[in-house]
Specification:
The protein is built from seven helices and ten strands. By secondary structure, the chain is α+β, with helices and mostly antiparallel strands. The protein folds into two domains: 79 residues, DNA mismatch repair MutH/Restriction endonuclease, type II (ECO RV Endonuclease, Chain A); 119 residues, Arc Repressor Mutant, subunit A, CATH 1.10.10. The strands form three sheets. A four-stranded antiparallel β-sheet has the order 1-2-3-6. Strands 7-8-10-9 form a four-stranded antiparallel β-sheet, with helices on one face.
Length: 222
């Protein structure tokens, strides 16, 4: 399995928590885990007994072994090729990622992430990776976080609140689920219609690259 790892399922002594292909794992029930961090990431998890008939054994007793055909067929899959949340940092070009991580503080890195990744779902894991701080989600919220800091730039950061979901749907951008955020730059709209949403009594739409910067409206907090 690509990027696969396996450990005995028994939570026994520390020396038994080794890779399934090692000698110490022989005859144990092992947990196999793999993940592919690609534009359409997937992950798999299954159980298999690391018995001799399931392994390609090495030339000596200390050599590592891999699963043979019988071993692969014996895997009981708990999840197989299931969707994995995409890593937003893989969707950005190298120069953008470098610019984000070049910022001198966790808050400034988060600001640059949401400024640079408009219209892309950003999960908690990406926020934690960029912020590199224990209170990483605080860096996203209002009252001093990116939601407040980026508002004068016309950028809204939509979260999992139901009102934010409605706004995302109206604007035609990805809808954030639990723990996710999506940033968008908006500009005033003159008329109601597709892609237009009312926020705070005014009409807004997604800003085009050439539209002037206008302070974004306050978002509902429910």
């Amino acid at each position: 399995m690509k990027n696969g790892a396996a450990v005995p399922s028994e939570a026994g002594e520390k020396d038994k928590r080794t890779a399934a292909e090692s000698r110490e794992a022989r005859d144990h029930l092992c947990l196999l885990v793999s993940a592919e961090d690609t534009p359409t990431p997937i992950w798999s998890m299954g159980l298999v007994r690391a018995s001799a008939n399931h392994l390609n054994l090495g030339a000596n007793r200390d050599a590592k072994a891999t699963l043979n055909g019988a071993g692969r067929n014996a895997i009981t899959w708990i999840q197989q090729n299931s969707p994995l949340p995409a890593n937003v940092l893989l969707k950005l070009d190298a120069a953008t990622v470098d610019r984000i991580f070049a910022q001198p503080s966790g808050q400034k890195r988060i600001n640059e992430l949401f400024r640079s990744a408009l219209g892309i779902v950003i999960g908690r894991a990406a926020v934690a990776t960029v912020a590199q701080q224990d209170d990483y989600m605080k860096r996203v919220r209002a009252n001093g976080g990116a939601r407040t800091i980026l508002q004068p730039e016309g950028i809204l950061i939509l979260g999992q609140y139901q009102s934010h979901v409605v706004i995302a749907q109206a604007l035609g951008v990805p809808v954030p689920s639990s723990g996710d955020s999506v940033s968008v730059r908006v500009t005033p709209a003159r008329n109601r219609g597709a892609g237009v949403v009312e926020i705070g009594g005014d009409l807004w739409k997604l800003a085009a690259p050439g539209d002037p910067i206008v302070t974004a409206p306050d978002l509902p907090s429910i």
